[in-house]
Amino acid sequence: MPADDFVFPPAPQASLAVQGTDARFPMRRIFCVGRNYEAHAREMGKDPTREAPFFFTKPADAALDTPCTIPYPPQTEDLHHEIELVIAIGKGGRNIAETDVMDHVWGASVGIDLTRRDLQAEAKKAGRPWDWGKAFDNSAPIAALKPIADVPSVEQGRIWLAVNGEVRQDADLADLIWSVREHVAILSQSMALAPGDIIMTGTPAGVAALVEGDVVTGGVDGIATLEVTIGPRA
Questions:
Q1: What φ, ψ does residue 97 adopt, rounded to 5°?
Q2: Where does the Fumarylacetoacetase-like C-terminal domain lie (predicted)?
Q3: Longest dimension (CA), the chain
Q4: Rg (alpha carbons) of the chain, rounded to whole number
Q5: Which numeric CATH code is attached to 3-233?
Q6: Would strands 105-112 and 83-89 be described as parallel, antiparallel, or unpaired?
Q7: Is 81 helix (H, G, I), strand (E, B) or coil?
């Protein structure tokens, strides 16, 4: 549609960097899988049994390339880090079979699901949506994507996060309650996936608070690493 057909200029296309090229991956939506590691479910006071996976979303423009510096977000006193394997969808589909999921995956990376934990806790207590705790500006820093043909595995490999050099989260993708193949297939039963969709696959145990000035590093072995600095309060 020509630009003149809009009442004001459309927002720029949200996108992510791609390793080894100047090309960018156009983003459509960000889906996040909740409580997908047993140890994290326990630290959040939940039963880690294999219940059906659940999902929440972030806006595509909450994502940003790393390394980066982001302001400490407003309206929170308890900003938490959650390191996650990131999956990028390159081929759409509905009711995708588990055996076919990897044919729909364009690439993978690592990201941080930043969480205003105090606002999330208030929402849980009141039985309200999590949006204000999860879907705020700059809440999804994501490292450059690696094409799936170059990714050694999305089923095993160390996933870790450190703050100021001190490791806080340290696990293996094999610890996922619902594997990438499983939770992507289940998500596609609820809505059609489309090229540009991003899936953040859940975080291991060790989530904790961040403060202004913290330098966060993390990665998934063989896929990507990232660095995020928490700047002054917005």
A1: -70, 145
A2: 30-230
A3: 53
A4: 17
A5: 3.90.850.10
A6: antiparallel
A7: coil
Structure tokens at 213: 């000035």
- pLDDT tens across 10-47, in order? 999 999 999 999 999 999 999 999 888 876 556 655 56
- State the residue for tokens 């929402």: 123
**Three-class SS state of 155:** coil
What is the per-residue pLDDT across 126-144, written as a single tens digit (0 to 9) for each? Answer: 999 999 999 999 999 999 9
Pairing of β 140-142 and β 83-89: unpaired
User: Which residue in the block uniquely carries the two structure tokens 């700047």?
Assistant: 231
In the β-sheet with 215-220, what is the strand arrangement from edge to edge?
68-72, 224-233, 215-220, 158-163, 166-172
- CA gap 177, 48 in Å, rounded: 8
Q: What is the pTM of this model?
A: 0.94
Torsion of CA 64, 66, 67, 73, to 10 degrees: 40
Residue written as token pair 């989530």: 207
